Every structure is written in structure tokens, then in C-alpha cells.
């Protein structure tokens, strides 16, 4: 086994959530909060990459606390009514990895209860640890808190873990703890993001099958 623990992002790494849930719910929020503004899916993905979703809301759109609460409510209602699908092959990958004795930890900007719902619905199992959006801001990625807590919980060194994420916050979190990072490149085709992740990641995978072969030592 290459790594004892996989630290997985959820949205757009394991499940197809941005085009089906996060983007349409955000467009719905904009119709109420910034009706004069239009935001394409590519623009939304780019902003979420840099400066990140919090930066998009706080620094670019200048949402007030009250507006942020409304956006959050619209997103939460949409998420409660819609469960994203996993990318083809990803559930099988996780199950095979678990059978070898590997640990699955999820660090995501989705809430833990939705992550548990998605795993139960599609895999019939629960991750070993979850660090979701409900945590305080300083405990969410890109902060190192989730990695540090995973190391403590399972007595792991930084060399025994691999972070898999499609986004910059996951990369920043991994680098802060000297943990190897693999970029999930199957969720988008935006050249600027792909180039950045290829240059700055330890590994870059264009498909789930490529990552599966790597992590399970399948040639």
C-alpha cells in the first residue's frame, strides 16, 4: 500500500456537485442578491479556485452578513433536495482501498451530514473521519487543522498520507503539513487551473481510472 490514509476532497473530486448543485444554487441566490449580475459556470469555477468561495462572496461580491446568510440558506435547501452522483469508478476505488486496510478521511467545504448521506447512498459506508464546512473557519482547509487531527487520530506520519483534491485550498493544506498532494483533474477543463495544478502538485490525474491504477498499484 502506497499510503495508509487518503485525505479526499468531496465536491468535484469524489462527487459531481458544482454543475449540479453549487452553481445552480448560487445562480438562484444571485437573482435575489445581485439581480444585475450574470455568472457563468466557468467564471464560478475560476472564482472558487482563486480567491476561493469565501473570497468570492466576501471580497468580490461584497455580501453583507445578512446576504451571506440568505445565500447559505438557498444553498442548504438546494443541497438537502439534491444528492450528487459520484464520478464513475470512484465508489469502487474507495471500496477496494478500504479492503486493503486503508483509511478514508474527507476534508471538504460541504457539511459532514451531506457527505455522510452521499457515502451511505452510493457506497454503504462512512468515512473514517470527516472535516466539513460546519467547523470554525480556522479549522477548515486551507488551514492545516484537519491534517494535524488525522495524524493524531491514527498515529500517522506525513509520509503515510496523500491528499486528493481538485482545488487550491486542498493543495495549500497539504503543503502546510508536508503531505504529498494529488490533483484530481477530471472535474473541469479550464487551462489556467489545469496548468497551475500540474505545476504545483506532486501528481496530476486526468481520470479516475488513472488515479485508481496509481493508488491500488494496478498496472
Number of discrete helical segments: 10
Total number of strands = 6
Q: Helix and strand succession?
A: EHHHHHEHEHEHEHEH
The end-to-end span amounts to 14 Å
User: Unreliable stretches, pLDDT < 50, 5 or more residues?
Assistant: none
Taking all Cα atoms into account, the compactness measure Rg is 17 Å
SS strand fraction: 5-15%
Given helix and strand content, the structural type is alpha/beta
**What is the strand arrangement across the widest sheet?**
3-2-1-4-5-6
Estimated helix fraction: 40-55%
Averaging pLDDT over every residue, what do you get? 94
Structure, described:
The structure is a single chain. Helix 1 packs antiparallel against helix 4 (about 65-80). Helix content is about 50%, strand content about 10%. The mean pLDDT is about 95. The chain is α/β, with parallel strands linked by helices and about 220 residues long. It has a six-stranded parallel beta sheet with strand order 3-2-1-4-5-6. It has helices at about 20-35, 40-50, 55-60, 65-80, 90-100, 110-120, 145-155, 170-175, 190-200, 210-215; strands spanning about 5-10, 105, 130, 160-165, 180-185, 205. The longest helix is centred in the middle third of the chain and has 17 residues, at about 65-80. It has ten helices and six strands; from the N terminus they run βαααααβαβαβαβαβα.
What keywords describe this structure?
single chain; 219 residues
Amino acid at each position: 500500500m502506497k499510503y495508509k490514509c487518503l485525505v479526499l476532497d468531496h465536491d468535484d473530486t469524489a462527487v459531481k456537485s458544482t454543475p449540479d448543485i453549487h452553481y445552480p444554487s448560487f445562480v438562484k441566490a444571485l437573482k435575489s442578491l445581485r439581480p444585475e449580475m450574470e455568472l457563468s459556470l466557468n467564471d464560478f469555477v475560476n472564482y472558487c479556485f482563486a480567491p476561493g468561495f469565501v473570497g468570492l462572496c466576501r471580497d468580490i461580491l461584497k455580501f453583507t452578513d445578512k446576504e451571506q446568510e440568505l445565500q447559505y440558506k438557498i444553498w442548504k435547501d438546494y443541497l438537502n433536495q439534491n444528492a450528487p452522483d459520484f464520478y464513475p469508478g470512484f465508489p469502487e476505488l474507495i471500496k477496494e482501498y478500504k479492503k486493503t486496510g486503508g483509511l478514508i478521511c474527507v476534508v471538504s467545504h460541504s457539511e459532514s451530514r451531506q457527505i455522510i448521506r452521499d457515502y451511505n447512498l452510493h457506497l454503504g459506508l462512512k468515512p473514517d473521519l470527516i472535516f466539513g464546512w460546519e467547523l470554525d473557519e480556522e479549522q477548515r482547509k486551507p488551514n492545516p487543522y484537519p491534517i494535524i487531527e488525522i495524524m493524531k487520530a491514527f498515529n500517522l506520519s506525513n509520509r503515510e498520507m496523500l491528499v486528493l483534491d481538485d482545488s487550491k485550498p486542498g493543495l495549500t493544506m497539504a503543503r502546510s503539513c508536508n503531505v504529498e498532494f494529488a490533483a484530481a483533474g477530471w472535474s473541469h477543463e479550464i487551462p489556467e487551473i489545469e496548468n497551475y495544478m500540474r505545476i504545483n502538485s506532486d501528481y496530476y490525474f486526468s481520470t479516475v481510472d488513472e488515479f485508481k491504477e496509481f493508488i491500488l498499484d494496478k498496472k
